[in-house]
Design goal:
The protein is of the alpha/beta class. The protein is about 25% helix and about 25% strand. It has a single domain (about 25-240), classed as Alpha-Beta Barrel (TIM Barrel), CATH 3.20.20.80. Helix 3 (about 100-110) runs parallel beside helix 4. It comes from Ciceribacter selenitireducens ATCC BAA-1503.
Amino acid sequence: MVILAAAGALHVWYGTEMAPFEPPSPKDYPIQGIDVSHHQGDINWPRLAMQPRVRFAIIKATEGGDFRDRKFAENWQRGKQAGIVRGAYHFFTFCRPGRDQARNVIATVPREPDTLPIAVDIEFHGNCDKVPTVDELAAELSAFMDELGAVFPGKPIFYVDEDFHDRYLKGNEAVFPEHFLWLRSIAREPKQQDCRRWSIWQFADNGSLDGIQGPVDLNVLCPSQAGLARLLSALEGELQIP
């Protein structure tokens, strides 16, 4: 399957036939944003800030117990200067203790007002070979949050794809730390179609935006997601974003 992005529209190709996928519209999903890392290279943040699809940016900060994204500090500062609501994300590895990973986040991400909760990227792609059980993953994420919560209190944002969600989180909510859900479902409406079950939907991984050379991940905020929607609206008001 090849996904093409052009002129603000996405199309999914199945063999020789093309099935159109219209990205979530600003009318239905008025709060849209991106997530970035060093893979996006040098970003023109003022240009991004002029676009209605970039009302927030979640920026990669850390991975595992010691990796720090080489563009994080620059992206973090320039995003702030451009007036974009920011959040930081951490790639959670299954082969390092949760507390070690939380210390890496604490040492890297500035504690600042007017930012989104810390996001935690939890997936098999790009991870180590270990496949944790539900209880093992829940224990390490709980340890991660116990350490992180002293500096960054409140609910984190857990980023997962639908398969990972169904394998680990679905039906096991009681054993995992309370969290907002950031769901990856590329070029199709999530199976959890009632968006009260998720807070953020990553709907494309090859979007095109003025200010970024090459592809970028595109996201929308669930309109009925009261917690994050209220928070983002408050931050936008404080930062005087139109």
